[in-house]
Design goal:
Elements lengths: L1 E5 L19 E5 L3 H6 L6 E4 L6 H9 L3 E4 L8 H11 L4 E5 L6 H9 L10 E5 L3 E6 L2 E5 L5 E6 L4 E7 L6 E5 L9 E2 L4 E5 L5 E6 L3
Length: 212
């Protein structure tokens, strides 16, 4: 099952999401992410969170539309996005795209990116994507689709990442190591419509910024 989760971050270009949000996906709004769903003219299948960013009028409209609502207490250990992600996994999602996960508060953005490392996501296809920029966590291999000239940054997430090999990038890596305290992996460039990134050991963040 393919699921798209909308978080309450920033989305600058809703038109760019046309290739991300398909008609046959299950849509979840993580609390305030509902504003993005509505801006796209869509109706979510589920709204989840403590609902502190949603008005009572919103809730009444969602009820009228037959949308499932799962309300949590404000005093909780997980963010609304983590709750949405956990719920989608419980429902059998194996392809998950998270929109609106970055921008605004830095602490929220960093926490949302770190969610990609949840052990429960092993074997799942998951990424953050706002239409212009997509973010993956690589622990073995990623086949990245894009356009020549796209920017690709590779950032070690929890420590050094070793035995990195790349194909299709302007500055190739050949069995090399990247360190979190250095910036060598920033601003590489796609030379073809496909790049392959392989990791021998560690967790490597890949940020792909599209030129079109």
């Amino acid at each position: 099952m393919e699921t798209v989760i909308f978080a309450n971050g920033i989305i600058d270009d809703y038109g760019a999401l046309s290739s991300v949000v398909k008609l046959d996906v299950f849509i979840i709004a993580a609390d305030g992410g509902l504003k993005h769903v509505r801006a796209l003219g869509l109706i979510p299948g589920l709204v989840i969170g403590d609902l502190d960013s949603i008005s009572e009028d919103d809730i009444e409209l969602l009820d009228d539309q037959g949308v499932e609502i799962i309300r949590h207490q404000k005093e909780k250990d997980e963010t609304d996005l983590e709750l949405a992600l956990s719920h989608s996994l419980e429902k059998g999602a194996d392809m998950i795209t998270i929109c609106g996960a970055t921008g605004g508060r830095l602490d929220q953005s960093l926490a949302n990116i770190s969610l990609l490392a949840l052990p429960e996501l092993d074997g799942k296809q998951i990424k953050l994507d706002d239409g212009r920029e997509e973010i993956f966590l690589i622990e073995d291999e990623l086949i990245l689709l894009g356009s020549p000239g796209d920017t690709v940054s590779l950032i070690p997430l929890f420590g050094e990442v070793s035995c990195i090999k790349t194909d299709g990038l302007k500055f190739p890596l050949r069995d090399e190591t990247l360190f979190p305290e250095h910036t060598r992996g920033i601003s590489n460039v796609m030379e073809e419509e496909q790049a392959v990134i392989r990791v021998g050991s560690g967790s490597l963040l890949c940020i792909h910024t599209r030129t079109k």
